[in-house]
Structures are given as structure tokens and as C-alpha cells.
Design goal:
Radius of gyration: 18 Å
Largest sheet: 2 strands, antiparallel
Distance between the termini: 9 Å
Order of helices and strands: EHHHEEE
Helix content: 10-25%
Length: 143
């Protein structure tokens, strides 16, 4: 595999179906409500914060929400996506954790991928770089 993976985020050969939760009973009733998803997002994504109203301290927990549910069909000849972090939409400034190890609470999202077929690099499988979740924002992704 080349270390110089280039391509458009969504090349024309890639078909997408957005709003999967609204369009698919299977996604809505089998995948998105799986208790394991709630357990994982509660542990890694939910945020508990406190603030004061006058002299009274109030504590709140914001639970993770499903913000994107979509499918991809990557057609023949589609270029691979450039390496990127999916949480870029949340404008996250990642702290470097390579030396210290992962810190629970440092994530703002979690992605779950359910392949409909056997996935390979050749047919467009998502590439994950082990340990890249520990990298700071100043480190460029490289395989």
C-alpha cells in the first residue's frame, strides 16, 4: 500500500445515503439502540460539568447523541479518502497523549462502522492508524 493516499472526501464513484436513522428501520431498531453503544458512549463521550447560579453549584451530564448515520457504497475506481479525523467537524484541539496514554473524557465523538460486505483496502475499507487517537493536533497523519 502506498503511504501517499490521496483522493476526494467523497469521490463521484461513492454513493452515500444520509439520514440512515430516519430511513432504515434496521439501523434505528437494531444498531443505534444496542445497549453496548450506550455503554461505550457513556464511558468515553458523555461529559459532566458544573457551574454556579449565584452561590449554588449545579452539575449536569450531557449524554452523547447520534449526529451522523449514513451508508457508503464505494464504487470501482473511487480514490481513497485522504487521511483525516472524523471529529474535525467539532473543531477539537487534540492534546498529545502518546507519552501519557489515553485520557478518558478527551473524546467528543465515537464512530461505529458496520460493514455490509467483507472489506479490504482494495474495495475501500476505512483505514485506521493504531494509536493515532493519542496524537496531538500538530501531528500529520502518516501510515
Amino acid at each position: 500500500m502506498s503511504n501517499n493516499i490521496q483522493g476526494d472526501l467523497f469521490p463521484p464513484e461513492t454513493r452515500r445515503c444520509a439520514n440512515l436513522a430516519g430511513r432504515s428501520k434496521t439501523a434505528r431498531e437494531n444498531w443505534l439502540i444496542d445497549p453496548l453503544i450506550r455503554t461505550l458512549t457513556a464511558r468515553f463521550v458523555d461529559k459532566t460539568t458544573s457551574n454556579f447560579y449565584g452561590e449554588t453549584k449545579h452539575t449536569y451530564t450531557s449524554e452523547a447523541i447520534c449526529s451522523i448515520a449514513m451508508t457508503f457504497d464505494i464504487g470501482p475506481g473511487a480514490k481513497a479518502q485522504r487521511l483525516h479525523r472524523d471529529d474535525k467537524n467539532f473543531h477539537v484541539d487534540h492534546e498529545e497523549q502518546s507519552a501519557t496514554g489515553y485520557r478518558v473524557g478527551s473524546d467528543v465523538m465515537m464512530a461505529f462502522m458496520v460493514p455490509g460486505i467483507k472489506t479490504t483496502v482494495e474495495n475501500g475499507a476505512t483505514i485506521a492508524i493504531p494509536g493515532s487517537h493519542l496524537w496531538g493536533s500538530d501531528r500529520a497523519p502518516k501510515l
